[in-house]
Amino acid sequence: MTVKDTLGRHDDWRCFEALLTISPALLIYQYMGFLLSSTTSTSTSIIHHKICTTFISKQTGRQGFDQFGALTLKAIMPEEKSLTITNDSNNKKTPHVLTVAGSDSGAGAGVQADLKACAARGVYCSTVITAVTAQNTLGVQDVSILSEESVAAQLKSVLSDMRVDVVKTGMLPSIAMVKILLDSLKQYPVQALVVDPVMVSTSGDVLAGPSILDTFRKDLFPMADIVTPNLKETSALLGGIQLETISDMRSAAKSLHDMGPRNVLVKGGDLPSSSDAVDIFFNGKDFYELRSSRIQTRNTHGTGCTLASCIAAELAKGSSMLSAVKVAKRYVESVLEYSKSINIGNGSQGPFDHGLKLKRSVCNSSRMQVFEPSDLFLYAVTDSNMNKKWGRSITDAVKAAIEGGATIVQLREKEGETGEFLESAKACVEICRLHNIPLVINDRVDIALACDADGVHVGQSDMPVATVRALVGPDKIIGVSCKTPEQALKAWADGADYVGSGGVFPTNTKANNRTIGLDGLRDVCLASKIPVVAIGGINLGNAKEVMELGVVNLEGVAVVSAVFDRECVAAETRKLYGLLKESVVGKVMV
Ligand SMILES: Cc1ncc(COP(=O)(O)OP(=O)(O)O)c(N)n1
Ligand SMILES: Cc1ncsc1CCOP(=O)(O)O
Ligand SMILES: [Mg+2]
């Protein structure tokens, strides 16, 4: 039996694993030496590299080459140029996937999908483009295959410089390109190779002809850590067999595994006999039936590329193969669900949204407008005790404040259960969206994220603003309570959008809260680089006085008891709104 045969089989792989657990480094070292001395072929030397890297990461507990690993490899493969010896401190590298695939002008699939999937999974993605397709939601209008020289040059550029962890392949339109790829991987080995054997686009257009199938089977698959064909590709690879049941998929996975890949994922998204989307994962020993719900959407273009890229990304981060596959499947299910009603293009198969964000703006479930300083004009802040006292729900309180003219609403619920608060917050988000009024959550970043509120308001002893920003992302509004110019400047520097400054007047609503007075408010406004809303003891009797400060950055007043500790919230809000309007007519800024 040749070394290639030996190592392609799992029994012997397990034997090797057993050696590792006994852990005599010298024994393994000798074993490697024996293997190396007995072969010269491309495929075996790539396998050797795989074994070595597995060995090294097991020995050192780290991904990639560290000094020990590189030295070991250098000792057993002295001619290997791609090995560089690095310091331990350099070992924490950015996970990196290289996609070798075609460009899709519609950006639903291909290289563009791979880039978006890796970005969404937090992994760096470089690209080698094999072909440029003119594609949209109607189909593929044109395909230009890049020259072999160009593909070889792109591979060299990336692999020689950028420490790629995992290579993922998509459209490989010629036999020569497969060979170029395999040669490059021999010269620059990577931790794993994920092969998505793209043959037909989702629109039914052929992207790799039947002549290449033999090269896939004989040359590419034995090098792959996983292959991820869909049903059509599986059938083509196995000579046109019929695949109608899960049992057919299992047999097919086994037959594909016999071609040499370490793992096989047969994707059953198109299986007519199943109401779920069932994929079969086979690692040469065990079969796993991975199920997810079948999402009713036209936006499925690019799911195959995305799944394979996500598997590659998870492997690059250090996951095991099975968990990479499971995470990838869950990710694809979530993005399909999340973007099931986005509407891009006129064709039958649309792209989906890898970032899970687009839906909000496209489907109008998020506020279309960005935050404006004038939103702070009349800021209604709810209070759980006042709502209880007056026997009204949060949603009724919010509706009434909006009816009266509130320009922004904050849910400040200091008591009560998280689950209940979240449900009310979701309902308030809907109400506010309907009226295009921003809704901000006090203190609770978790609730703000879970209900997709427009922002969060935090105080000086709440979660730090920079952390809030990192959690909520760039689009959400962040307000910060500030009593001093220094705090206001820091709030701006940390990424806040507005300052709430007070208490301006004494108040019973917030116990032990130092009053800063109109002078304190003025100082904060003058120093601030972001808009300011005044808060604390403001009511119909003094709101005019606050606004007539006429100080730069002061955009409005925030009130709790003046509107919510009253019988008729809408009427009180309306009165306050009128008063504020009067006070800003002919306002002169100082
Ligand atoms: C608009 C606005 N300004 C200030 C505050 C006070 O927030 P914080 O200091 O976090 O105090 P609590 O509201 O949490 O008691 C606010 N809520 N809104
Ligand atoms: C939350 C808060 N932050 C500073 S003062 C205050 C309470 C404002 O309540 P009211 O408008 O009833 O005085
Ligand atoms: Mg707070």
From TrEMBL:
Cellular component terms per the entry's GO annotation: chloroplast
GO MF annotations in UniProt: ATP binding; hydroxymethylpyrimidine kinase activity; metal ion binding; phosphomethylpyrimidine kinase activity; thiamine-phosphate diphosphorylase activity
Catalytic activity from the UniProt record: 4-amino-5-hydroxymethyl-2-methylpyrimidine + ATP = 4-amino-2-methyl-5-(phosphooxymethyl)pyrimidine + ADP + H(+); 2-(2-carboxy-4-methylthiazol-5-yl)ethyl phosphate + 4-amino-2-methyl-5-(diphosphooxymethyl)pyrimidine + 2 H(+) = thiamine phosphate + CO2 + diphosphate; 4-methyl-5-(2-phosphooxyethyl)-thiazole + 4-amino-2-methyl-5-(diphosphooxymethyl)pyrimidine + H(+) = thiamine phosphate + diphosphate; 2-[(2R,5Z)-2-carboxy-4-methylthiazol-5(2H)-ylidene]ethyl phosphate + 4-amino-2-methyl-5-(diphosphooxymethyl)pyrimidine + 2 H(+) = thiamine phosphate + CO2 + diphosphate
Top-rank taxon: Eukaryota
Domain Pyridoxamine kinase/Phosphomethylpyrimidine kinase: 104-347
Protein's UniProt keywords contain Flavoprotein: no
Compartments where found: Plastid, Chloroplast
Keyword presence, Plastid: yes
Function: Essential for thiamine biosynthesis. Bifunctional enzyme that catalyzes the phosphorylation of hydroxymethylpyrimidine phosphate (HMP-P) to HMP-PP and condenses 4-methyl-5-(beta-hydroxyethyl)thiazole monophosphate (THZ-P) and 2-methyl-4-amino-5-hydroxymethyl pyrimidine pyrophosphate (HMP-PP) to form thiamine monophosphate (TMP).
NCBIfam families per UniProt: HMP-P_kinase, thiE
Family, per entry: Belongs to the thiamine-phosphate synthase family.
Protein's name in the database: Thiamine phosphate synthase
Source organism: Lactuca saligna (Willowleaf lettuce)
